[in-house]
């Protein structure tokens, strides 16, 4: 049997009781550590809770045949693969489970909060008002790569009045974590390159760092202000709001102290985009 479980977004707080019980009866437990990170998480503490060793998995492990070995073990043993956040927020884990089904391995899935769940709680934005989610990565001028798809997704979402969640580049094994100011600078650079009037220095953005953790930080202001922020520990996400509902405005006003006129002004500017498309 293969157990696939998420550990959530901060420490051990979000691990379900069901997953803990399943891990106590597993013969082998692995933790995939390259697609994301969970602030405050301790593998040692988890090992103490479940009473067994947890082995780390790297990208190289899963790309060099180790996954096949793990799935073969799961044909005769109870094997668990844990991930940060929700296990199905990354396509890598969908592939792992698909391979297990293909090999006839029974699968049990234990979900946990993802960054998207955290963003909803941190900002009060409505889930049904989000458009397509995109990942923003650093450009590579050496090979002439600039993330136009992300730029286009942002433009498409705004043209429909929808919020955009940008997941910022994170390569934990390489120590690469795009910060809020990095992301703002990349977006401004993309506008300078493509000039499709998607990005404006004055556009409203919400930057969330370590969402729902005890040391969560939330910035709300203009993109050019975001580009001047000091960097802080990861992970980070950037949201560009679309048309804001009254209850979303209330939440942001009362929780973050943002002036209503700032929020309504941005919302009206998005509405003008709708009228011009």
Description:
With 277 residues, the chain is of the alpha/beta class. The protein folds into 2 domains: 112 residues, Tetrapyrrole methylase, N-terminal domain (Cobalt-precorrin-4 Transmethylase, domain 1), CATH 3.40.1010; 161 residues, 2-Layer Sandwich (Methyltransferase, Cobalt-precorrin-4 Transmethylase, Domain 2), CATH 3.30.950.10. Helix content is 40%, strand content 18%. A 5-stranded parallel sheet has the order 3-2-4-1-5, with helices on both faces. Helix 2 links the parallel strand 2 and strand 3. The longest helix is centred in the C-terminal third of the chain and has 17 residues. It is elongated and about 60 Å long. The termini are far apart.
Write the layout of secondary structure elements.
Layout lengths: L1 E5 L10 H8 L3 E5 L10 H8 L4 E3 L1 H5 L2 H9 L4 E5 L7 H12 L4 E4 L4 H9 L10 E3 L11 H12 L4 E5 L1 E2 L4 E2 L2 H15 L9 E6 L7 E6 H4 L9 E5 L5 H11 L3 H17 L1
Parallel strand pairs: 1-4, 1-5, 2-3, 2-4, 6-7
Antiparallel strand pairs: 7-12, 8-9, 10-11, 10-12
Task: Flag low-confidence runs.
Answer: none
> Whole-number average pLDDT?
94
Structural category is: alpha/beta
CATH H-level superfamily of the largest domain: Tetrapyrrole methylase, C-terminal domain
Looking at the structure, what is the overall shape? elongated
Order of strands in the sheet with the most strands?
3-2-4-1-5
Q: Write the H/E string, N to C.
A: EHEHEHHEHEHEHEEEHEEHEHH
Main β sheet profile? 5 strands, parallel
Summed up, the domain count is 2
């Amino acid at each position: 049997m293969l157990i696939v479980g998420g550990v959530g977004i901060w420490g051990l707080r979000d691990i379900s009781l069901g997953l803990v019980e399943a891990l106590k009866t597993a013969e082998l437990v692995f933790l995939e550590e390259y697609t994301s990170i969970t602030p405050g998480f301790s593998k040692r503490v988890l090992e103490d809770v479940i009473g067994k060793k947890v082995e780390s998995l790297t990208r190289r492990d899963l790309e060099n045949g180790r996954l096949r070995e793990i799935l073969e073990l799961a044909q005769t043993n109870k094997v668990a693969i844990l991930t940060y956040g929700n296990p199905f927020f990354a396509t890598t884990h969908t592939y792992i489970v698909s391979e297990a089904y293909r090999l006839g391995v029974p699968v049990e899935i234990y979900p946990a909060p993802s960054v998207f769940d955290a963003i909803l709680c941190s900002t009060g934005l409505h889930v049904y008002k989000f458009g397509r989610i995109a990942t923003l990565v650093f450009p590579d001028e050496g090979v002439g790569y600039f993330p136009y798809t992300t730029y286009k997704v942002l433009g498409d979402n705004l043209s429909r009045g929808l919020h955009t969640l940008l997941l910022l580049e994170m390569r934990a094994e390489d120590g690469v974590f795009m910060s809020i100011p990095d992301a703002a600078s990349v977006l401004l650079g993309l506008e300078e390159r493509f000039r499709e009037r998607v990005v404006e220095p004055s556009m409203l953005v919400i930057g969330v760092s370590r969402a729902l953790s005890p040391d969560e930080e939330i910035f709300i202001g203009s993109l050019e202000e975001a580009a001047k922020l000091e960097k802080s520990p990861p992970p980070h996400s950037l949201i560009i709001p679309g048309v804001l509902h009254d209850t979303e405005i209330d939440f942001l006003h009362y929780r973050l102290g943002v002036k209503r006129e700032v929020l309504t002004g941005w919302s009206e500017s998005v509405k003008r985009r709708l009228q011009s498309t």
